[in-house]
Specification:
single chain, four-stranded antiparallel sheet, 10 helices, 12 strands, globular
Amino acid sequence: MDPIPANLESSLSVPSVQELAFQRPEKVPPRYIRDEDGDDIIGTYLSDPSLRVPFIDMAKLVNAGTQQDELQRLHLACKDWGVFQLVNHGLPNTSLKNMGNQVQRFFELPLQEKKRWAQRPGSLEGYGQAFVTSEDQKLDWNDMIFLKCLPIQNRKLDLWPENPPEFRETLERYSEETREVAVSIVKFITMSLGLKDTQISGSFRDGLYDIRMNCYPPCPEPERVLGIVPHADNSGITLLLDCADFPGLQFLKDKKWVNVEPIERAIVVNIGQIIEVMSNGIYKAPEHRAVVNKIKERFSIVTFCYPGPHMDIGPADKLIGEGNVAVYKKLTNAEYFSKFFDRDLDESFIDSLRV
């Protein structure tokens, strides 16, 4: 039996969901079932097909003639939704396809081969599952590999798969290209808040970029499980590449779950709790979850983007004062992450940051 993790920076080893799905069970094992024992995490909120996640066009943000209108659209998307689909973002289509192909090929490897890059005790990095802290905890219906990509010195290359052969090179290129998109979109997010402070977006230039690659296998009872439980991200922003042609990602909007319809070449961008704090709560990090499919497997590639370690995390000076009180505390970068990893899993992180 694995030792119980001291905090959320490590996770207990659990069986592969892919291997379980390969056995084609008629029923889901009890540890994955979410609709029993008063756990209403699935049925609490209905999905609403009439609601649609906003679109933002990066080409209109960089064009002086269309910038102001698109900044207003960005402001409303961040304020009302906390998420949008970004088009014309500048990431080459070949890069998106190559990264998706490499992730799919990795998860298609035999289990013992994938386990060469399994998580080690005391770390979330590698192949496995995240945030499993007890032997009786309900489990998500997914397998994942989580890798720290930037800055380069954060990489643990012994956990970077050498199979498929092009995986490392493709991930390295993808993480660097994704950083360029993140720096640009954070710049426009700060502009949409009325801030001329380039220090915030500049801090993402030397920030942290962690990438989680997910596999959601087919499930015999998809209505009884979750791919990932509802949560908000602790990042600055999060960029998600959906490799499927059917929806699996959902965001909570007005107490209704809204599907994010996969759009070819689009990237889903959501506000993280760092930007929520820096905006003094004007923009909120939205709750989101993953649901699964009875027949189809789904892959996604999620890049968590953080400011550099020298950036304090607190409301922007211009957004407080003159009658605007600070909603959140000001913390050093180290204090922020310490609060996140040293809490109980069911404790609200964002509430712990409030004044």
